[in-house]
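Trying the structure run again after the queue cleared.
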Amino acid sequence: MSRRLLLAVGFVICEGACWAKAPSDSGAAATKAPSDNGAAQAVAAMQSLFEPIARMSPGAARTQRACADIEKLRAAAKAIPTAAPASISVDPELWRGHVGIVVSSAKDLDEACKAPGQKRKDFTGEIRTAEQEVRTLQSCLDGVAEDVKPRALPPAMKAFDQPLRRAAADKKRKHVCKDMAAMAKVVDALEAAPSGVDKAKWDAAYKTLSENFPDAKNFCDPKSDDNAVFESVFGNVHEKFYEMVLLLPASKN
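Done. C-alpha cells:
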C-alpha cells in the first residue's frame, strides 16, 4: 500500500533529492529483525565510510574519491538491515523503503561513475552527473541516520502512530477502516506543534495530512471503486505523519 507509493516516488528523506527515484529491489540481504544496535551500527559504518567524501568540496576531486570508493559504499548500503528495529522513529514500511532508496542511490552513483563523461540518464530521461548522485546519496544516508534515532512521541502522536503502522502493513486492508476510525479520534490533536520543533514545517506537514485524511477514511473499504484514491491519500497521510515525527528531537542515549 504505502510502500508501493513510497518506492514509486521515492519518499522524501533526502531533502528533495530522492523524489524521483525509480522503484528498485534494495538488494539488502537482511530479513531477520535486527537488534537496534545492529541497524544503528550499519548506518554508522556507512556514514564513517562516506564522511571523508562529505567533507570535500563539491567538484571533480570529490567525485573521483566517491567513485574510487563506490564498491565499498554499495556493500555498506546493502549491509543496512531492511527489517526495522523496534525503537526507530519511522514505521517498518518507511524504513524498508528508505533503506532501499539508499541502496538504489549507491547503485545510481556506480552507474554514473562508469558512464561516459560520468553522466547517466535516469528513468525519467534526466541526465544526472556523478556529482549529483554523490549529493543524493549523502542526503539519503543522512535521512536514514535520522530514521534510526528513537524519538519520544507525545500522547496524541503515539495514539495515531500505532493504528497507522497497522494500516500501512495491512496490504489486504482487512482492518484498515477500523484503524482509520482510531486515527480519526486523535487527528485534530496533532495540529498544534510541540515546543521546540520547526513550526512552519510542522504546519505544512499537518496541513497536507489533514486535507488527505478524510478521503483516506472514507475510501478505506477495499471493495471500494476508489482504490487508487485511497492509495494516494493514505500515502500522503502516512508520509506527512512521519515527517512530523522526524521534526521531534531525538531521544538522548
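The chain has two domains: 2-147, 155-247. Worth checking whether this holds up in the mutant runs.
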